[in-house]
Write a structure and sequence with these properties.
Layout lengths: L9 H6 L5 H11 L6 H13 L1 E4 L7 H12 L13 E4 L4 H8 L5 E5 L10 H13 L4 E5 L2 H5 L3 H15 L3 E5 L8 H13 L4 E3 L11 H18 L4 E5 L5 H15 L9 E5 L2 H14 L12
Parallel strand pairs: 1-2, 1-8, 2-3, 3-4, 4-5, 5-6, 6-7, 7-8
Length: 306
């Protein structure tokens, strides 16, 4: 993955455009009916694991829990070496150093929420310092939130400036920008937020923190994917999509893969351009793989909860 660079804010107005809400919802519903057959389903489930950001963002998280999750991230099914490792382990900033130690050279990235997650209401200098500290401790990816209040007030310049500053604070680390789409209230604002974040240097745009009830939805993913497509056509820069919040089943994960494939193409079916933020979906994917291979579901207790 090549680290993104900022475009001028004028690119947002140049691409612009409003969203046909009915059309987006109809397209999302139609894509949700696509049937994936056995061999293609196994490939899709394998890809979903490789694109997974295994996540824990709880107040009780500890270095011991992170060590357990790191083991799961590296070997999701300990007795089956054919199962790939996940893309990243996503955690709070103070646990970055233990995660780096636990993951070693496994190929699993260390991702950290930072910059005042999940509200984004801390002073900007505090948010930037938190990003810099997480990167200094070894995080290779940073997930931040935009200032939804600024966007809702119509201050796109403030959002652009904050994301640009966060991009600088990340240094060589990659930046995922969370829009918290459930708070933006319209598809037009979601498209606008997507374009502002990408113009300011986001490597990925992400649907949700997972901390509010209205999280990732299929229409939202379509809107964001179409914004990524239009941005790539206008700038020749590919930005990734991360869906997160409320994704609990393999079926849901596969539906998002269909949306990405149909909207952005096969080039985005890769961990460098697509991620699924998840705390519980991984086990269901593993059980579905067992089902596809053997014809029966495995015991849920076969796979660790943490």
């Amino acid at each position: 993955m090549t680290r993104a660079v900022s475009e001028g804010p004028g690119i947002v107005e140049r691409i612009g455009g409003s969203v046909d809400a009915v059309g987006v919802e109809q397209r999302a519903a139609a894509l949700g009916t696509r049937s994936i057959k056995k061999e293609a389903k196994l490939l899709g489930l394998d890809l979903a694991i490789r694109c997974c950001d295994l996540t824990t963002l709880e107040g009780a998280d500890s270095p011991g829990k992170i060590a357990q999750l790191a083991s799961k991230a590296i070997r999701p099914a300990p007795t089956d070496p054919s199962i790939p490792h996940v893309a990243a382990l996503c955690i709070y900033p103070r646990l970055v150093a233990p995660a780096v130690a636990a993951l070693g050279d496994s190929g699993v990235a260390v991702a950290s929420v930072a910059g005042g997650f999940p509200s984004g209401q801390a002073p900007l200098d505090h948010r930037l310092a938190e990003i810099e500290a997480a990167v200094s401790d070894g995080a290779g990816e940073i997930d931040i939130v935009i200032s939804r209040g600024a966007l809702l007030a119509g201050d796109q310049d403030a959002v652009y400036e904050e994301v640009s500053r966060a991009r600088e604070a990340c240094g060589s680390a990659h930046l995922k920008v969370i829009l918290e789409t459930g708070e933006l209230a319209s598809y037009d604002r979601i498209r606008c937020a997507s374009l502002v974040a990408m113009a300011a240097g986001a490597d990925f745009i992400k649907t949700s923190t997972g901390k509010i009830s209205l999280a990732s939805t299929h229409p939202t993913a379509v809107v964001m994917a179409e914004a990524i497509r239009d941005f790539a056509e206008a700038t020749s820069r590919a930005v990734g999509l991360k869906v997160a919040g409320g994704i609990k089943t393999a079926k849901e994960a596969l539906r998002y893969l269909v949306i990405v494939n149909e909207t952005l193409g096969e080039e985005w079916l890769d961990p460098d351009r697509f991620r699924i933020g998840a705390s519980s979906v991984l086990n269901d994917i593993l059980m579905q793989i067992d089902k596809q291979r053997s014809g029966v579901y495995s015991d849920p207790d076969r796979y660790t909860k943490d």
